[in-house]
Amino acid sequence: MKYFSMTKCLNVGAVLCAAIFLSACAAPVSKDSQVEQRVNERWEKLLSGDLAGAYEYLSPGYRSSVSSLQYQRSILLKQIKWTSAKYVERNCEDVNCTATVEVGFTIYGGVPGIKSFSSTRPVEETWLLVDGIWYFVPKQ
């Protein structure tokens, strides 16, 4: 039979107490910062070309009617390439948020005689809280 010394028991107790106190000091993640994180993650996926990953940020209702392949095709067929995205602000009420993102883009072949046009503009996105997770709701 093994015996534990009093010193070992105190050390284990001290470590457990420290873990409990440190976890209590951690700041809770606010609803607003969750939205900002999800917005930034989705745009990182879009800018890197990970359309399947970006699809996972779409609302469950949208994903129930549009497959990942359909979504990817719709993005790839557009004559626009996103070049940057910068989160600006959000306005949240209960389970709905409107996030503003400054999006950089290049449009190819949009105007006769001009090969491409680049600019930035603010885009308002709608986000919905479903089962504790924020999802992007595309405009139809």
CATH class call: Alpha Beta
Spans of at least 5 consecutive residues with low confidence: 8-29
From the alpha-carbon coordinates, what is the Rg to the nearest angstrom? 23 Å
Count up the domains. Answer: 1
Give the termini distance in whole angstroms: 70 Å
The topology string of helices and strands comes to HHHHHEEEE
Oligomer: single chain
Broad shape: globular
- Total strands: 4
Approximately how much helix is present in the residues? 40-55%
The third-level CATH topology is: Nuclear Transport Factor 2, Chain: A
Order of strands, main sheet, comes to 1-2-3-4
Strand composition percent: 35-45%
Which architecture per CATH? Roll
Q: Report on the biggest sheet.
A: 4 strands, antiparallel
Overall mean pLDDT: 83
The total of helices stands at 5
Instruction: Supply the helix-strand structural class.
Output: alpha+beta
Structure, briefly:
By secondary structure, the protein is of the alpha+beta class. The protein has a single domain (about 30-135), classed as Roll (Nuclear Transport Factor 2, Chain: A), CATH 3.10.450.50. The chain has helices at about 5-25, 30-50, 50-55, 60-65, 70-75; strands at about 80-95, 95-110, 115-130, 135.
